[in-house]
Amino acid sequence: MCKESDVKLIGMSRRAIYSTDLTDKQWEKLQSVWPKAKNGRTGRPRKYPLREVVNTIFYQLRTGCAWRLLPHDLVPWTIAWEHFCRWRDAGTLQVIHDALYEQTRAQEGRCGAPSAGAIDSQAVRTTEKGGQKVMSAAKH
Prior knowledge:
This protein has helices at residues 24-33, 50-63, 77-90, 92-107. The chain is mainly α.
């Protein structure tokens, strides 16, 4: 996703630059679709920059490592997990995904939403026997 020369960390110094880190251009695009705080309230001041929280979540999602096994130079796992759960439950992640998805399709000269979809029959699971499955309530 990014090269060392693309990343400027604000408020944090990190030893490593990860391929999952957002570039400045990606961060700008993400900020443009990020939902604004309601009534101008943002809560207590952040201890960790929001960009680093997002970078930590991206690292975990891409590598699939356990939250507790995140590298120590990223945001503490408890902070990243808390933000991830809050954004997931509030629908923030879905809003961001949808906005970036539509922007990306528009940049490619395509309609904002796909007009068709395909399902591979190999990926659709059915019963092993095929056909309808009948359950008998009288079994003992």
